[in-house]
Specification:
By secondary structure, this protein is mainly α. The chain is 96% helix and 0% strand. The chain contains 1 helix and no strands.
């Protein structure tokens, strides 16, 4: 009984780790794109003003 539960916990942990990695990479990518778009918007704004 205990061995079967441990095996199931390990499998769930493996898939859970993969899902967490995917979620973190997506969040990092979104945050990076937002940070990179701010300077572009500022440059466009300055160009339009001048």
């Amino acid at each position: 009984m205990k061995n079967e539960k441990r095996k199931k916990e390990r499998q769930d942990g493996f898939f859970k780790d993969i899902l967490i990695e995917i979620r973190e990479s997506i969040l990092l990518e979104v945050a990076w794109n937002i940070l990179m778009s701010i300077p572009r918007m500022m440059i466009r704004l300055i160009k339009n003003i001048w």
